[in-house]
Design a protein that fits this description.
Largest sheet: 9 strands, mixed
Number of helices: 4
Helix content: 10-25%
Number of strands: 15
Number of domains: 2
Shape: flat
Oligomer: single chain
Amino acid sequence: MFKKVMTVAMLASTLTACKSTPPPTEVQLTNIPSVSYRMPLDQSIDISFNAYNTCVSSGDSGCVKYDSIKTAEASGDFLVEKRVHNGTIGSGAVYTIKQSTERTADANIVTYQPVKMTPYQQGFILPFAVPSIDIAAYLKNSQFKTKFEINSEYPSQSVKANFDRLMKKAHGRFRIYGSNSKLGLEDYYMTTVDGAKVVMLVESFPYRNGSKVVVNAVIETKKSDKNVIDVAEILKSVKEKVAEVTNA
């Protein structure tokens, strides 16, 4: 299967047993555009969407307000929960997104169509307001990983020097979705292709009369006016960029 969304937590109905105020009315999302990913046929790609739990307000006793996003799958639907909470109770909105896949002659097209938003508020005294999110923009902001190799006629030391000269080193703020891990950034490089941010670990080894370059890359798509993310084209551009630097 070429797409996997990491389940990071149970959603609102099982987050807490605290009493809730009567929730606002469920909203049918009839005017939200779909977001599609054009996936290559010859490579398995796992798509990850951003999930986090961040303190946004602190008091004398510690954090008093968190902002979070959680994702899950249920009955074939993709669920995104936008939530604000105090560590125990809070308010949120669960977006239900239909998923579909279409195979064409040169790609698999995975489409996400938001269909409804279910809000909730927990607690009776001054509950948090239900947070909002641009769900279409959220679905355009994803990460996926790829690994590939390129042979070069140049020695490995020259290849390393090319990357040091022609590419920026990755910065410490980059975070892999679904993980709190930080990259050891000394050997990581960063570039942009087709509007996507690319962070890559580049290793070169002696091979025959030249070298073999092994690339492990994390590619992060960003909000754009396009509703189709062409993963196949981004991967092609990344490989072309690496080949250009390798043989410079």
